[in-house]
User: What shape does this take?
Amino acid sequence: MGPIIAIDGPAAAGKGTLARRLAAELGLPYLDTGLLYRAVGRLVLDVGGNPSDVAIAEAAARRLDPADLDRSDLRGPAADAAASGVAAIPGVRAALLDFQRGFAARGGAVLDGRDIGTVIFPDAPAKLFVTASPQERARRRWLELRTKGEDADLATVEQDLRARDERDSARAAAPLRPAADAVVLDTSALDADAAFRAALAAVREKLA
Ligand code: DC
Assistant: This one.
């Protein structure tokens, strides 16, 4: 079986781009686990529910279908907030566990999220915790929104990001934190290529 590579970190730290490139380089499948929580949040909004309503969110997590991950409405402020809300519910996290483990069991994988190295695959041979300053992450997210033609305000983007970090880190269920054996990669001063080179070197060293 191929290796499992766990990439965790806060929102907009560049984990997705890095994880996707690592997966391509190493010939492994890639799973963006944030999409699972986003899709569950969306299913809750679809029925007019509140993302922190435990019964509704757990029911949505249990009926999640892989096709839901291809929805086009999983990004943006409403989806961000709904995902972060359902992600704090232990029953939702439990319902999504088998999907994540099953995905990688087929032959290794690169997975990115918040608790991959701490909860989903605590024995993964290579773990990265990818981070950057809140200001830099907000700037990147703002640029991304502007590139999509959205009229975003930098201060609001930073405020939303900090609120989401706070919720993801302060929750009791699988809070965002680096695994003890994770390599911490701060990308604040790195462009995408430099971050990729540093990540690949760290992963190769761990797998050697
Ligand atoms: O990575 P992302 O921004 O797409 O994640 C969306 C939300 O889901 C985020 O607020 C944290 C949560 N999440 C989580 O709790 N655990 C994961 N493994 C992935 C995401």
Summary: Residues 11, 33-34, 37-38, 83-84, 87, 113-116, 164, 168 surround 2'-deoxycytidine-5'-monophosphate (CB under 6 Å). The first helix runs from residue 15 to 26.
